[in-house]
Amino acid sequence: MEFGDVCDYQNIKKQILDFKPDFIINLAAKTDLEWCELHKKETYKTNALGAENLGLISNLLDIPYIFISSAGIFDGKKEYYTEFDRPNPLNTYGLTKFYGEQYTLKTVKKHYVFRAGWMMGGGKKDKKFISKIYKKILKGEKEIFIVDDKLGTPTYTNDFAFNIYKILDNSIPYGLYNMVCGGEASRYEVAKELIQLLDRNKIKINRVDSDYWKKEYFAIRPKSEKLKNLKLIARNSNYMRDWRICLKDYVNSDIFKEIKP
Which pTM was predicted? Predict the structure, then answer.
């Protein structure tokens, strides 16, 4: 497998031109919020300049460009956010993803911007919340501390990819779309559901607020990152299932078993 550096315009352009794609999906991103705060230059290069570079190449080839954005571009002052709410990022990660959104929407001729929520999926490559909790369980921890003051909409990678495929296959109009699983949850509720699915109910889950983890997770996070798939539903193109169903699918999948402590 050949890897490309989206920050290097000339090199990534050559690789893409040689490959001759039908469309470009930008999955390159720095997503660890604390890392992003400590490495702002590198974060802007990947998340913002990288988004710009791939958009330029999409225009050059006159092919669709898919930019993956995030619920983290909002300030969390509202309970829910649709595609028509104004973003107000609170951290470096959010600022860079918002820049990528704006560049794509304003500059790329054939574009899709899909906003994801709390991602789950990826097996051993999964560095998100589900993986972190599962690794604690595998290490034999009998007690875990989970925040209950952060709200969001979990998003399963399989459903997310399938929804992108359906949109491309059905030539749904270009534009901005929220794309998250059905339902909502706090971090605590997600952890509780995971432990029940794993039949590890003897593990004690303690509710805490965000201050409990403020040293480890010092980047500012919005209280609510809950999205509604308003435009997908309106265009009969919402194939995202409820997050609880998706979490069960993930836990029962072979790729989940690849996660190691």
Answer: 0.93
